[in-house]
Amino acid sequence: MTTTAPRYVGTSLPRKEDPALLTGRATWTDDISPPGTLHLAVVRSPFPHAKIVSIDTAAAREQEGVRAVYTAEDVDHEFLAGIPCGWPVTEDIKIPDHRPLAREEVNHVGDGVAVVLATSARAARDAADLVEVEYDELPAVVDMADALADDAPLVHTELGTNHCYTWPLATGDVDAAFAEADVVVSGRYLQQRVIASPMEPRAVVCVPDQVGGGFTVYTATQVPHFVRDILAAVTGIADTKIRVIAPDVGGGFGAKLNVYAEEFLALVLARKLGAPVKWTETRSEHHQATTHGRGQIQDISVAATSDGKILGMKIELLADMGAYLQLLTPGIAVFGAFTFCGLYDFGSYSFTCRGVFTNLTPTDAYRGAGRSEAAYGHERIMDDLARELGMDAAEVRLRNLHPKFDEPRTVPSGVQYDSGDYETCMRKAMELVDYEKLREEQRTRRESGDAVQIGIGFGNFTESGGLSPSKVAAGVRLQSGGWEQATVRMTTSGKVEVVTGTSPHGQGHETAWSQIVADQLGVHPDDVEVLHGDTLIAPFGRDTYGSRSLAVGGTAVHLAAGKVLDKAMLIAAHLLEADEKDLEFEAGRFQVAGTAGPSVTIQEVAGAASLAANLPDGMEPNLTADSAFDPPNFTWPFGTHVCVTEVDTETGFTRIRRYVAVDDCGVVVNPTIVEGQLHGGIAQGIGQALYEHATFDDAGNPTAGNLASYTVPAATDLPHFELEQTVTPSPTNPMGVKGIGESGAIGSSPAVVNAVIDAVAHLGVTHVDMPATPQAVWRAIKQASEQTA
């Protein structure tokens, strides 16, 4: 069989999703209010750590519109277990009991202690303010290092420790590498806590089926299948009785990769009251009760020769768990263990992570989870190594890159990267930014003593995308398979319907999946409808996160479409009275190769398959096929990001003058979607580098409790992004794709911070923590000046 070259894959088709989003015809969870809906409000702890002495709900119950007020005592029996952790990274990990409502003790500001249900959201919130809770305040632990002290207050007394787990990894002889080194460079780099700021906050509506005894759960989530499965496990309701629908979702960024207390409460209270229950969080609740990202102390050392060749690397991490373990909390830092070695080739590597409990909001996934933290660490230490050796930052990197490889290659962390051409990518970025000319300008400005200095920063990275091979997931104790499911079927009229287990929230799956199927089946993308985000329509799926959608979910679609085409070929050969080996398929039409004889379109074949009157013996009717794809390895997209900053040495203010990114995500399906994903990811990385910080006071009270005090960049704060690609196909899937959704967030923060430091390094500044605010940069300059005076 022969086919034409792809017509749609690789083309920037307009996104099918956009018209509804841009014209206000999208459906968000908060738009859904069935008749009789009761609105839920949560009474939250104002203390980081306290005993619950008493809860008086009498005044709240008397308010107009209030239907019920519940505490943990009223609802605990509805749950078979607490909120589960899905990634217990070690056998001896400490996992505290985490109930949807706190019973005896609250452990962070925002911990829920009671709920109010009323006929309107305003009535519920007003009544919640009248619930009187008496607390006996306890000492709180905020700092990770302090939390491990022998005399530290305990977040959970019953655990007897604030130490959650220790997870080690080592390859090669690290001690020998450091003993043989000409130079050893060490650095401590902080990953501050950050808060995902999606346009749509979290929301859930649970509707009981009065006839069938089931429940429909509408929720703003990245993971409807996880929500269904975990709700069933915790409440005892059969998973066949829980239908989860993710309507249009206004951003996820990892914060919606979870199952939260409010989803459990909405379900059991809808069951208890026999009425729809709805909750939509406020932005302040989002900052208190939705998981935060990052939160690491990174101690990194590299051993190298005098000419800049790395011999070994050591990483010691402290990872902030917060007060509880949410779905993936312990595994986020561990996930980064495999990429702290970056794009660099050396012999010995050790990594140890200690998870630590604090009286703060739990942490979990945030765009680039684990890999972004790793890239920041290895790119900061590369610049520090270059400064120690008096070498150019680019030259040190180029000397240590893996050579080009097209088949899996084992890297220092012990895993196998799929394919890479790192030097070509990096040199292309340097050429685009005109690196040598920038260095010359930098020398000129330094010599003239210009108040505004320029800096050039690199962000080389790779990430483990395509999450994940199921056996590998099991090997690191992740309690989920990494496969993905798809169904492709041609209707009687010849249109195509695709059911995917991935659940998009801005990635453009409806468009990209249509392009994949259109090329294979010879139809127009407009004739392909993609169904997703509904566990009744797509009962099998592992959802969307970890740069996996295209590499795993898109591959499942590709394989299912291939099965449909194979069956169509057999039917076409039967209809044409020919051998299928002699047929060619071009532009949606089957014909005997090299002849001008009869032909049949794939739409005609679909009609014949439905009519079933003239099919090969033993063949079942209809053109439909399922496929489940479990990847044999991760994919490893990579790139080089280069940031050029101008730093005012008198005020510390940083302006990004240029931003160049060369990314390699394997074969590109839709270039515009790739650019859009990079724009968003780079913006988030710049936000962490220069603006964002979820701060707390020494007692554990949040001091960035809403968007008035938590700074995120506006469009006017961002530069024009100059984007280019190289293409190194992945050998781990038949399409050669790798994924792009998190790359921008991974390469950007180290590029920006390295550029800020590089701009003022000649003044003695060698370190600035994120966010590199004007005040932080000014203080670093001042401190360096005082030390050299």
UniProtKB/TrEMBL annotation:
Keywords: Molybdenum, Oxidoreductase. Signal peptide: none annotated. SUPFAM superfamilies: CO dehydrogenase molybdoprotein N-domain-like, Molybdenum cofactor-binding domain. This is Molybdopterin-dependent oxidoreductase. Residues 23-139 form the Aldehyde oxidase/xanthine dehydrogenase a/b hammerhead domain. It holds the Pfam family MoCoBD_1. It comes from the Bacteria.
